[in-house]
Design a protein that fits this description.
Blueprint lengths: L6 H7 L13 H13 L9 E6 L15 E7 L3 H20 L12 H7 L7 H5 L15 E7 L10 H8 L23 H11 L11 E5 L4 E5 L12 H18 L5 E7 L2 E7 L2
Antiparallel strand pairs: 1-2, 2-3, 4-5, 5-7, 6-7
Helix pairs in contact: 1-3, 3-8, 7-8
The structure holds flavin mononucleotide.
Length: about 280
């Protein structure tokens, strides 16, 4: 599997950016991101769409910051597997953009009616009503094919950060749990090979909504298979699609295994209302 960017350093460099210059992404770069999106090879079937759209320089879409001109929406069905595949595929695109010097931020909370105006994609007006307070998420069940998350793609504007974001930037956003804390069975830690630990280290660095890092790792087949899932019954208090975050984490682990020379076999299945990813090496 040939991934056209350095894996660890790109993962280490990525941060959510919440302040952008109001300038369009350089033409060659945006074309390279679109080409990557079109040709993206992931190790599973899917029907996730990566839709590029332009937004106005207002705070309507993201509400906490002005939209830069270029943005991407990840559109899928709302079953747990499709939702989780959004995370895997979206993160691969986000990391590619990062490797081109482009900043991003996963957004699960955005104004869905504004997105629909900029990028008509819903099948019925009912889908707008399902979302809570007009944002892209709801506390209830959403249906149909729809944007799950969106991200700006643009140039980071350092001076534009609000004080609160500067503080967050220095503290919570960089913080991650240690691998050992993420194991279903912490006693497994001493049995893990350096390669598996390397992959899990990239996994723990994944972004998650509210930095909640609720993924858990377990092992099968004598430690040749890593499973990634959220705990059974997990609910985030304001993010309805935590399976996205699990897919993002699975993507990082997959990249870690590739970086160590493996061609991991990847499956994702539903179990107890969650997406459960399995990444196996020989
Ligand atoms: C699925 C998902 C949804 C997110 N939604 C939002 C959001 O609506 N608003 C926001 O400001 N940040 C959002 N984030 C960004 C997270 O807060 C951020 O990834 C986390 O705090 C870790 O920081 P980092 O990305 O800089 O490593 C989201 C992240 C993920 C993975």
């Amino acid at each position: 599997m040939n991934i056209p960017f350095p894996l660890k350093s790109t993962i280490d460099a990525r941060r959510s950016a919440r302040s952008y210059k109001m300038t369009a992404v350089n033409k060659d770069i945006i074309e390279s991101i679109k080409d990557f999106a079109n040709a993206m090879a992931v190790p599973f079937d899917h029907s996730v769409e990566i839709k590029f759209f332009t937004a106005d320089p207002t705070k309507t879409l993201y509400t906490i910051m002005k939209s830069p001109p270029d943005n991407v929406a990840f559109v899928a069905e709302t079953d747990s597997i499709s939702i989780s595949k959004v995370g895997f595929i979206g993160e691969l695109l986000i990391l590619f953009a990062e490797s081109k010097g482009i900043s991003t931020c996963w957004y699960g909370h955005y104004k869905l009616s504004e997105l629909e105006r900029l990028l008509p994609h819903l099948q019925s007006a009912e889908q707008l009503k399902e979302s809570n307070m007009g944002y892209g998420y709801s506390k209830g069940i959403t249906t149909g094919r729809r944007a799950i998350c969106i991200t700006p793609i643009g140039y980071y504007e350092d001076g534009g950060l609000r004080l609160v974001d500067r503080i967050t930037k220095k503290t919570s956003s960089f913080k991650r749990k240690e691998v050992k804390e993420l194991l279903v069975n912490p006693n497994d830690y001493d049995k893990l090979s350096d390669d598996i630990l390397y992959a899990l280290d990239l996994g723990r660095k994944a972004p998650s909504a509210g930095n909640s890092q609720m993924w858990q790792f377990a092992f099968e087949d004598d430690f040749k298979t890593i499973t990634v899932a959220m705990p059974v019954g997990y609910k985030h208090f304001k993010w309805e699609h935590p399976n996205v975050d699990i897919g993002i984490c699975a993507c990082h682990i997959w990249l870690g295994l590739i970086d160590k020379g493996y061609a991991p076999k990847v499956t994702v299945n539903e179990d107890s209302d969650r997406a459960v990813w399995r990444l196996s090496i020989e």
